Amino acid sequence: xxxxxxxxxxxxxxxxxxxxxxxxxxxxxxxxxxxxxxxxxxxxxxxxxxxxxxxxxxxxxxxxxxxxxxxxxxxxxxxxxxxxxxxxxxxxxxxxxxxxxxxxxxxxxxxxxxxxxxxxxxxxxxxxxxxxxxxxxxxxxxxxxxxxxxxxxxxxxxxxxxxxxxxxxxxxxxxxxxxxxxxxxxxxxxxxxxxxxxxxxxxxxxxxxxxxxxxxxxxxxxxxxxxxxxxxxxxxxxxxxxxxxxxxxxxxxxxxxxx
Length: 259
Fold this sequence. Notes:
Blueprint: H1 13-23, H2 27-38, H3 42-59, H4 63-76, H5 80-99, H6 106-119, H7 127-140, H8 145-162, H9 165-181, H10 185-202, H11 205-216, H12 223-231, H13 245-248
């Protein structure tokens, strides 16, 4: 299994180790495995940046480390595809900062993703991820659901064509969120269920709790309560994503005499 969530029996041991750490919310440890290569290898530098940016999104911490990793990725990029991918990472980090109200960098996010689109070839493997990130900005910053849906559909098709299962789980989830917003409950339930299924199959533990909470929004009681209870597993990963806490409430009190 690779660091991007695709499955392959012949993945290098480094990528297998990175994926296992990432899926368990150990982003710093995963990034440390890539650090010896990041100074000269553009792919390693980009992957390390993505890991540290994901940490920011899930924990609200680590912004300086992510910025440093991004600057390294930009410095070692040589080809248009590498520079376009680095611009995509800059846009995503700026989006995360804006979304979590750390600092408004919405203009920087839009400019960076536009630069990425100009640099990446139409058939570039990085295109589906770029489309997904443009959808995120349209959905969560620009409040433009139609533009978001179009971008997510392009990303969804690209992820399916490239067999990028982890990205596909995200496109399912965000398309379902748009369906839910528009009152299309059946479509929302299908999309959330597909997202959850893929994440469970991949063993992407840190992404499973958000998928459970999303699916619970489309379920009747007592199924909704069961799904929310299952999402409590996020506490086993140190309480990440941190933004799930309001949906789950405080942990249940321990019984007397338990460890």
